[in-house]
Amino acid sequence: MKEQLGKIKLEAKKALDHAKNMEELNDLKVKYLGKKGELTQVLRGMGQLSAEERPIIGQLANEVRDELNATLEEQMNLIKKTEQKQKLNLETIDTTLPGKSFSRGTKHPLTQVIEEAKQIFMGLGFQIAEGPEIETDYYNFEALNLPKDHPARDMQDTFYITPEVVLRTHTSPVQVRSMEKLNPEVPVKIICPGKVYRKDDDATHSPMFHQIEGLVIDKGIRMSDLKGVLLVFAQQMFGADRKIRFRPSYFPFTEPSAEVDVSCGICDGDGCKSCSYTGWLEILGSGMVHPNVLKYGGYDPTEVTGFAFGMGVERIAMLKYGITDMRLLFENDIRFLQQF
Amino acid sequence: MKVSFKWLQEYVDIDITPEELADRLTNAGVTVEYIEHLNKGVAGVVVGEVLEVVKHPNAEKLSLCQVTTDGDNHFQVVCGAPNVRTGQKIPFALVGAELPGGLKIKQAKLRGTESQGMICSAQELGINEEGLTSDQKEGILDLDPTAPLGMDIIEYLSLDDCVLEFDLTPNRSDCLSVMNIAREVAALLGKEVKLPEIKFSDIEKKIEDLAEVEIKDSNLCRRYVAKIVEGVQIKPSPQWLKHKLICAGMRPINNVVDITNYVLMEMGQPLHAFDYNYLSAGKIIVRKAEKGEKITTLDENERELTEDMLLITDSQKAVGIAGVMGGLNSEVTHDTTTVLIESAYFNPSNIRRTSTSLGLRSEASLRFEKGINIETVVDAANRTAQLLAELADGKVLKGIIDNYPNPIERTKIKLELTKVNEVLGTNINDEQIKEILSSLNINIIEENGSVITLEIPPYRPDITIAEDLIEEVARLAGYDNIPTTLPFGASSKGQKTLEQKLRDKIIDTITARGLTEVISFSFINKTNFDKLLISEGDIRRQAIPVLNPLSEEQGYMRTTLFPGLLDILRRNINRRSENLGIFELGKIYLPQGFPEKSILPQEKWTLGIALRGELVSNWQDKAQPVDFYYLKGIVEDMLEQLKITDILFKPCQDSPLYHPGRSAYVYVSGEMLGIIGEVHPQVADNYDLAARNYAAELDVELLIKLGHGPIKFKQLPRYPAVHRDLALVVKEEVTASQLMEVIWAEGGDLLSDVTIFDLYKGNQIALDYKSLAFALTFQAENRTLTDIEINDIHEKIQKALAEKFQASLRS
Ligand SMILES: [Zn+2]
Description:
Helix content of chain A is 42%, strand content 20%. Chain A is an alpha+beta fold. Chain A folds into 2 domains: 2-90; 109-337, 2-Layer Sandwich (BirA Bifunctional Protein, domain 2). Chain B is elongated and about 130 Å long. The interface between A and B is large, with 87 and 94 residues. Bound molecules: zinc ion.
C-alpha cells in the first residue's frame, strides 16, 4: 500500500502540475481526492492491514492527502491568477481618452470676493447687515453729516427716484440704520455688502457697483484699531506679506478720515505700472465715526467711539484677479465668468 | 487747483524738491496729483530780434531773416512761419541748441541758403499753448517787445518752473489759494510764511464821493467791500503774471482782468471789476432777484433768475449775479478807465444753489460756495488796487467802502488733550500737540489743566469740532505713526443671519448643477415690458422710474429678472457661446404704494434661471438639448436641498412670458413660488433668440420663509422595504401629478416613495393614450410588511386610479 500511495502521489502531482485550467483541476480533484477518488479507494483497503501497519499507513495517507490538497490549492491560485490576468488583458481601455464632461457652474467673481470678505470679517466677530438700495435722502446723506447744499454731495453723482429718495450712493446708510436698531448696545460690529449706484460710466466706473461697509462702535475704539482690523483684512484677502498705508482724506461722516492703500503685490512695493510706480494701491476709505453720525444713530459720542470703512468690491476683485476693465464684471461673458 | 512752484516759493522758503514737497503734502492730506515740469528739453534758446525779413530766393513760402541776440552779431536764418516780421522779439535757437524731442540745431543749408539757427514756435519749445493767441499758436512765438535781448528763454518764459496739480478734498477749499497752500507748506516744513506787503499811494479824491454800497440782504451777503481805481490803462499783463495765470490754467486777457484773477488765485478771494462809468449813479445794491428778472452775463448768455438768487445792481439795473458771474453791461473793456473793485463774502449754500440751478460754475462760485476767509475781504480789495496801480497805471481813490453789518467771530474749540491719543491710539505728548496746532496758526487762547481752548484761523472753515483738531494733529504727526492694534472690548459673535445662509445655499446648489452666476444691472429699459409681452395691467409695468437716468436703457428699476437674463443669453450667443446655463440671485423693485405712501419700495430677492442649447457632450455622451425637465430638475434639486417638501407643479397657460403648453406654476406649501418653463417663442424672438429657451423666476423670500432651519437626523429604516411597479394606461391629458396625487392619497402611511420610471406613447397603445410606469416603495417603521397588506393597498390605488382617470393596467 505504501507503494500504491507513493504512486498516486507522484501521478497526481504530475497531473496537477500540468493542469491548464480550473476545469481540469476540478476533474483531478475528483479523480484523486474525491469520495470515489483513488486515494479514498486505497484507504478503503486499510482494514486488511495489521494493527501495527494501520497507523503508519494512515499517517502516510493523510500526509499524501494534505500534500495533494496543498498542491491543488497552489495550482488553483496560479490558474486563477493567470485566468484573471487574461481576462483583465481583454478589458483594456484607452485611458488617454478624455474623462466625462460635467457642466461646471461658477459663482460670479464679485460674489466670491464678497463671500471671502464676509468670512474674514466673521472671523473677527463681525455680523452681516443689510439695507435697502432705494434709500431715503435722510439715511444716504443727512444722517451721515451731509445736509442739503453740503459741497461734498458733489463727490457722489446721485440717481434720484424722487427728490427725497435716491439709489444709495454708498453702503454707508446701513451705518445709521444698524445703530438705530442696536443702540445702546455695544459692541456694534457689522459689515454690509451690497449694490450701490452712481451716475458714472467708463472703464473704471459703472453706474451700479458693489461696496462693503464696515462699522465698529464700542467704548474706547481707536484709530489704531481701525488700522489693525484693516491690516488683518488686507493680509487675508491679498496675502500675508502685504502692508497697508493710511493717508489723510475727507469723508463727511468720519473724522479723522483716511484713505487706505495696500502694498502692490506685483512689484512688492517697489513701484511698477500697475501701481503707477507708487508701490501702493488704493483700496478703501475709512475713518473714525463722526460724532454727529453717532448722535444720529442714538449713541453718545462722549461715551463711545467707532470706526467705519467702505470698500469697492469691484476694485478688490480687479486687484485680486488682475482684471483691467471694470466693465468685464458686468458683461457676463460666460468665458470670463467661468475662469473663477 | 494748479500752482506754479516758483509762485509758492515766493511765500515760503522751500528747501526740498517739488517731488519731495508733493509727497509731504499728499501724506498730509493735501494731495498733489501730478507735477508738470515746464522745460521739456530746451537748451541754448535765447531772446532774439528779427532785424530784416526778405523773401527766400528759391522758395515761395520761406523767408530769409537776419536775427540778432545782442544787437551786434547777425545770424542769417531761413524761416517758414507766416507771422515773422521785422522788429519782432522771438525765441531764437542758436546753433548747438536743443529742443524737446532731442532735436539738435545745426548749421544747415535750406534750398541753397545758409541757415544759422532757428526761430521757434511755442510747440517747438514744448510750451503749453493754453495761454497763447491763435497767431502765436500757428506761427513762431512772438514775444513781448520788452523781452530783454539775449536772455535765456528758460529764464524769460520761466521754463525752469513746474506746476503742482492738486486734487483737493471738499473740506480743504482753503487750498484754492496759493497763500493758503504756502501756509500748509510752512506748517509741514517748519517755516514761516512771507506774505506780500500791501502798499500803494492814493490820491485825494475820496471813494465816498463816487460810490455807495447798500446790502439789502445781510444774510446772503455778509460783507461787501468796494474800492475804486481811476486812470487805468488796459494792456497786456507782464510776462511774470501771465506765466502764473497760465500755470494756474487761466488764460491771460488784459491787465485788469488778469489782476483780479491773480488775487483770486493768490488769496482765494473772488473779485469782480466793474467799469465804473457803466454803474448808474455809482451805486451798488445787493438784493435778491425778482421773479423772472433777467440778466445777460459776461459769457453773453441771457439768464432768467429766481427769487432766491442774489443780485448785484446799480440804481437802475442788474450788473451781476452775486458770486457767480458779472453782467455784460458793466464789463471791463478796452475803453475802461475807472474800475470799481468788488470784494465780498456771500452765503456759501446760496451761491451753491444759484450756480447749480443756473448750471454756471466759475472759479468764483467754486470758492464762495465753500466759504472764503471773511477777514481778508478788505486786504484782497487793497491788493487788487495795489496791482492796478503798479501794472495798469491806476490812481487809487482814498478810502474804502467796507459794508460788514454783523462781524463774524472766529471759531473757538475746547480740546481735551488726553482725547487725542484716546481717539488715535497714539502716544503724542501734550507739547507736541500744541506745537503742531500752533504751526497751523491754531492758537491757544485759554488753558485749563488738560483742557485747552483754541482759536481757529478764519481761512479754515472746515475746523469746527474737537475731532477736526485731532485730525489736524494726526495728519501733521503723520498717519504712519498711528500704531496697529485690535479692538479690546467685549467679544462678539461673527455670523450670517439664517436668511443670508439660505441665499448662499441657493447659489451653492445651483452652481453645483452647472449653472453660472451672472450679475446684471438693476435698471432696465421700459421697452422690455413690450418685448416680454407683459399686459397693460400687469403689476410689473409699474416699475419705478429713475428721475435722472444715464440713458433710456437704464430708466427704470427692474420688476423682473427676465430682461437681464435674456440679454445675457443674446450677448453670449453673439460671442459664439451657444450652450448656456445662467442664473441670477438679485432684487426686483416693486412700488407697493411708493411713493404715495411714505414708505420705501419693496426690494424683493428673486431667483432667475435661463437655459438654452445642449448639455455638455463628449465622445461618450451624445449631445442632448436641454429641456423643460432639465430646468425642473434643477429647481427640484434646489427645493430638496432647502428641505422644502410640499411642492406642486401646475400647468401654466396664462403667463405671456412662457410657452402656454410648456410652463408650470410652482407652489410650495400652497403659496405661489413662481413659474418655470419654456420662454414664449415670440418673447425669445423679441430678444433675437432662436428657440428654445427655458427660464424660471422664483420668489426667494418665500423660499427663505419655508426653507429649513437646523437639520434634524431621521432614524434609518430597520425593516425592509417592498417595491412594486405599476404601469398604467391613461388618456393623454391626464397629468403625472394628478396620478401621483391619487397614488399618495391612497397609499397611506405605508407608501414611502413613488417615482416615475417610464413614459410611453406609440403603437402598442391606443391613439390619444399614454402609458406611465410608477415604482412604488412601501415601508413601515416597526415591522416587516406582508405581501397581503401590500396587495390590498396596491389594489386600492389601482381602483381609485381606474375610477378617477379610467386608468387601466398596461398588459
Ligand atoms: Zn506695483
